[in-house]
Amino acid sequence: MKQGEVELALLEFIREEFLWGDEDRELTLSTPLLEWGIIDSLRTAVLLTHVRERFGVYVSHAKVNSRNFRDITSIAGLVLAESPEHDPQAEPVAASTADRENS
Length: 103
Prior knowledge:
Blueprint: H1 3-18, H2 41-55, H3 72-82, H4 94-102
Helix pairs in contact: 1-2, 1-3, 3-4
């Protein structure tokens, strides 16, 4: 599982489930999800269920915070970090894609 794959899957899920398609394509990987009210406590629960079903990753309640859920890149990084396949010796996963988008 790669950062870009997780980001794309999360982007599409959030567009379809929370923004009813986002026809204007305003949602990006760095959109501030909490600040814009795109996710709230109920939608976070729905998103966590999707992550568990789609990626087989259980995110503990201790990891559900504004830093880890600020944008799609952050959520994807969390999913990869919590994945059973994650190698803790590897470089951080969230920074690379965010850097590409901001370039």
